[in-house]
Amino acid sequence: GASFEFSLSSDGKTWEPAVLGQDVSFNGQNRQRLLWKVKFVPDNDPETTPFLDRLRLDYKVKFL
């Protein structure tokens, strides 16, 4: 019942939502690194804890 919110950043300050199947652009920002974070949003059951069992990250870099 929990959900996850993924975000990407190239500078650790400005975070862009990461949605499956949608591109994330970092216009003019640092292109030397890619940071990601996940926010766990629990459901209303205090007896459960959300967790990730597996994570697969596929990415490509497109320079414009």
What does this structure look like?
The protein is mostly beta strands and about 60 residues long. About 0% of the residues lie in helices and about 25% in strands. The chain has no helices and 3 strands. The protein has strands at about 5-10, 15, 35-40. It has a 3-stranded antiparallel β-sheet, with no helix packed on it. Strand 1 (about 5-10) and strand 2 form a beta hairpin. The model has no long low-confidence stretch (mean pLDDT about 80).
Note the gap between the termini.
40 Å
Mean pLDDT: 81
Summarize the helix and strand pattern as letters: EEE
Q: What is the tally of beta strands?
A: 3
Largest sheet: 3 strands, antiparallel
Oligomer: single chain
Proportion of residues in β-strands: 25-35%
Structural class: mainly beta
Helix content: under 10%
Alpha-carbon Rg, integer? 14 Å
Strands side by side in the biggest sheet? 2-1-3
Low-confidence stretches: none
- State the helix count: 0
Global geometry: elongated
Question: Can you give me a brief rundown of this structure?
Answer:
The chain is an all-beta fold and 64 residues long. The protein is built from no helices and three strands.
